[in-house]
Amino acid sequence: MELMVTLAVLAILTMVAAPAFRDLWRRHQVQAATDALGADLTYARHEAVQRAAYVSVCPSKTGQACSAQPEYGDGWMVYAYSAGVAGANRTYVPGESGFSRLRYTVPAGSVVVNATDAGVITFGQQGQFKSTAERTGVAWRVCANDGADDSRQAVPGAELTLTASGSLQRRRLMPGDGCVPPAP
Fold it and tell me: How distant, in Å, are the alpha carbons of 41, 67, 69, 94, 105 from that of 62?
């Protein structure tokens, strides 16, 4: 009889703790993906200064080409090329002379990472973000992928914003915020 009571209490505790643990795990995945993207953007900025070249980041599903979609959930690529006549914000071309792939990162876990657009993010020789008249900044939202409708999240996500100066700002999203960032 005591064993049955113990098992019943254990079953109740498990049912109460399981959703909290699942949400804790999903928050960890969001944090890890946000940290990885932030680290690679900081790395790209640093490498641009160190190499005196353009260093770019773009969404990539394979690590061999930039994606035309603003979705970083399948990965992103960091690559360098010389600051020459062709200018900044060039798309990676594998095998083309002058391009050097530095990193390819795939976020661990099940997350959704959306950017304001699918454009290439480029840092110049002084570490500045190479913005355009139409694009003075870029934002990313990282959310837990619950396998259903990813437009509204129960677990708080995170937002990274790259400003025109090249600085990176981070803020926590509120539960229920969308996972598609507004234009900065």
Answer: 19, 9, 13, 12, 10
